[in-house]
Sequence to fold (491 residues):
Amino acid sequence: MWRGLSVLASRTTRAPSRLCVCLRSGAQSLAPGSTVFALSSGQGRCGIAVIRTSGPASGLALRSLTAPREPPPARSAALRLLRHPRSGEPLDRALVLWFPGPQSFTGEDCVEFHVHGGPAVVSGVLEALGSVPGLRAAEAGEFTKRAFAHGKLSLTEVEGLADLIHAETEAQRRQALRQLEGELGQLGQHWAETLTKALAHVEAYIDFGEDDNLEEGVLEQADKEVRALEVSLQAHLRDARRGQRLRSGAHVVVAGPPNAGKSSLVNMLSRKPVSIVSPEPGTTRDVLETPVDLAGFPVLLSDTAGLREGVGPVEQEGVHRARQRLEQADIILALLDASDLGSSSSCDFLDTVVVPLAAQRPDDGQRLLLVLNKSDLLPPEGRVPSPGLPPHLLLSCLTGAGLDDLLKALRTQLAAVCGDPSIGPPLLTRARHQHHLQACLDALSQYQPASDLALAAEALRVARRHLSHLTGGGGTEEILDLIFRDFCVGK
Ligand SMILES: Nc1nc2c(ncn2[C@@H]2O[C@H](COP(=O)(O)OP(=O)(O)OP(=O)(O)O)[C@@H](O)[C@H]2O)c(=O)[nH]1
Fold:
């Protein structure tokens, strides 16, 4: 925890954006002079808990709790006896760190108290801090909001930090860290610089016309760069769903005829008894969802009713819901009983679901993995008695044979659906990013220097403004409220 906080504390300061300035002037919580404190490590009993403060009275808070000792040198840990400033009662022997602003996470004076993690110690230190004049308890996300207001983090970095705190799988962590490290923001800045350069060229042309002083081909060069930028933005927009899926989880739906072993597979992949398994066909009647970490990717895994016709009204409703869920799936795990491929329900499922999906190009939308379960029931030579089946995997939920291959195939499909956060350019992770890029592209479609140079320059200005919204330059407080509400108290 300390290392993370301290690494963040060493970030360099950027010029605050217009949005930051509006934040600083508008938000009551950031009124000049306010100093906040909170428990920044998790709630509950633990070895060490980190309590921190941010604001001009941080130094006073440190001196009040550690008197008569002097504060330690900046950014160096020192052991101190903490006492209640009013009663003088000893509270804990703790490590304290002093981060004078602007070289701190928030850009303000900050203190970290690394105390023993018992509830009585934590509440005693919080109570002691509350008794120091000028200090108050922080609101959720307030430390990060202050870091943003002081230009320490861009908006995309704030989003990356929120995602990192909420990351539950390896792939989510990688994507969030890349965004926190500023890769998406840098890409946005690079795009904005391209537009600034093009705008400078167009404006020079407006001012000097065919003047001898102007280099030849200035307008052509600007045009080339704007068109290349359009191509790049379009490519990122095409990929946009992937980054969002990685944040929220890909939908993987297990479907197939009754009794194929769908519930057994869902239980095996989620490693918990989510669904009832029974030899009676038609046991699962509704869609059962469970969030799982599959090969490092976040997945919402759905078990569905077995697809068959001519059943009673309750099961029919289950079949209807299963079909609806299939339409929303990113990946369909189509499951058949390998020992029962000739049954009418297996043939129907193959004809109506598997074959049409298998004929699609994978990048057209949904992805299919055909799995033949109950391979343990096949004759010893293990061959599937149905030539002409689309590519498939063999599995036995009973013995676990074939599970490694299935996980490998799922990983490949999930990386295609969510994007592989370890490689390639940073992905757009929120609808907000998509919106600003689309608005930028719409503005660029009005860029027609051959017909009207003044209008073309205006199109570039509007496009650049939309790009600056990506990293938090100009905008409204509502965006911030939406983003910061993802944070917990103490962050
Ligand atoms: N031999 C064998 N039996 C299996 C295997 N997988 C599941 N079964 C059995 O097949 C039966 C049906 O399994 P379920 O997982 O309930 O199948 P389902 O597809 O969810 O069934 P419905 O809810 O009717 O759609 C149960 O008796 C399971 O124990 C397997 O790999 N091998």
Notes: The two ends are 12 Å apart (CA to CA). Residues 2-154 form a domain with the Gyrase A; domain 2 fold (CATH 3.30.1360.120). Confidence is low (pLDDT under 50) at residues 1-30.
